[in-house]
Amino acid sequence: MPVVKPGKERGRLIFAMDxxxxxxxxxxxxxxxxxxxxxxxxxxxxxxxQLCYYRGFNEFSATPWLxxxxxxxxxxxxxxxxxxxxxIEKVLxxxxxxxxxxRINAVIFIGDCFEENPDRVCQVAGRLGxxxxxxxxxxxxxxxxxxxxxxxxxxxxxxAYSRFDEGSAEQLRELLRAVxxxxxxxxxxxxxxxxxxxxxxxxxxVHQLEKE
Length: 212
Description:
With about 210 residues, the protein is an alpha/beta fold. Helices cover about 50% and strands about 20% of the residues. Strands 3-2-1-4-5-6 form a six-stranded mixed sheet, sandwiched between helices.
């Protein structure tokens, strides 16, 4: 499978997902949609993506940096969701380590719950904020604890938080496209996309970034 060492002109995006049992339907949605993240960034220099996920009993995995949609699709197709607790602290610690090894433009995290120590997780989020790596958290459902912590992570990293409804592929599609454009072209590219598309979700992300 082709992997790359990203060049200077390509955006770099960590795409992290909760792959515990409750995430099955959205994992399948994201697998079908993810190719658009590559397509919409071509005019901005392209995008390299690293897929991260956790599931089961303390299982955490991260791929090499991937340069095309087919390879990412193959990686995601080989993963099934398993029951287990959240491991968001591992995701953020991994992002810290990767950021120290080179430039990364953004982190996407998709999840529905939170079962960890919020102080420890927010401590790592603060380190990402210092490193200048924003986290965009896409929250499925309405779990109040998860929303509270996800919003804190977004604030500490100067990223953004957005909730989407289970089964809403169009919401997830706009969210992933918007952050991919941000990773490849920065705040201006996201603002231009928001103005062109007229989508409310993209406009909300721009508004949050401007507030931060």
